[in-house]
């Protein structure tokens, strides 16, 4: 069960831990926690400033640390994709296959960023929040290369 998806100002281990602990307290289950499943980033795993360290110390009992690089988020993203585009018939997603087939015929030197008319008042606000978040994430602490690429692509779009 997904208990919450709190928005935090920064991705530091301490802020992540505080958001997690607040959610646990809201559900009244802090003392029932016996393990942590997490992505293996330094903000989660750091022995001094990692979210897992802060959470474990706050729980006042040892917990099992279960590192997972991507599988947890794949489940969330799969649910979102299914909600937006419908069920897939297996690993060959028609939308992606069509894009893959057409890729060689796309003039990659003639690109355009998203135009203003693509956004209504609601999505324009979300776009602005995303761009601000991405710029702030790049300024505050240099992200890993794969995250940096994602942030740059979001800003570019």
Task: Describe the fold and architecture.
By secondary structure, this protein is mainly α. The chain has helices at residues 13-27, 42-45, 51-59, 71-85, 94-102, 121-140, 145-156, and strands at residues 35-38, 64-67. The longest helix has 20 residues, at 121-140.
What are the key terms here?
single chain, 157 residues, mainly alpha, 2 domains, two-stranded parallel sheet, 7 helices, 2 strands, globular
Secondary structure tally: strands: 2
Structural class: mainly alpha
Oligomer: single chain
What is the average of the pLDDT values? 85
Give the neighbour order of strands across the main sheet: 1-2
> Largest beta sheet, briefly?
2 strands, parallel
Percent helix range: 40-55%
What overall geometry do the principal axes of the alpha carbons give?
globular
User: Can you tell me the number of structural domains?
Assistant: 2
Offer a concise description of the structure.
The chain is mostly helical and 157 residues long. The chain contains 7 helices and 2 strands; from the N terminus they run H-E-H-H-E-H-H-H-H. Helix 1 crosses helix 3 (51-59) and helix 6 runs antiparallel to helix 7.
Write the layout of secondary structure elements.
Blueprint: H1 13-27, E1 35-38, H2 42-45, H3 51-59, E2 64-67, H4 71-85, H5 94-102, H6 121-140, H7 145-156
Helix pairs in contact: 1-3, 6-7
């Amino acid at each position: 069960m997904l208990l919450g998806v709190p928005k935090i100002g920064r991705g530091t281990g301490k802020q992540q831990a505080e958001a997690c602990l607040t959610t646990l307290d809201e559900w009244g289950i802090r003392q029932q926690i016996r393990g942590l499943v997490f992505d293996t980033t330094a903000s989660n795993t750091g022995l001094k400033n990692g979210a897992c360290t802060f959470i474990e110390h706050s729980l006042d009992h040892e917990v099992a640390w279960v590192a997972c690089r991507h599988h947890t988020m794949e489940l969330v993203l799969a649910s979102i994709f299914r909600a937006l585009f419908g069920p897939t018939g297996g690993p060959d997603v028609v939308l992606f296959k069509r894009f893959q087939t057409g890729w060689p015929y796309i003039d990659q030197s003639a690109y355009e960023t998203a135009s203003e008319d693509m956004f209504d008042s609601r999505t324009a606000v979300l776009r602005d929040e995303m761009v601000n978040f991405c710029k702030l994430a790049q300024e505050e602490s240099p992200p890993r290369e794969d995250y940096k690429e994602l942030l740059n692509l979001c800003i570019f779009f």
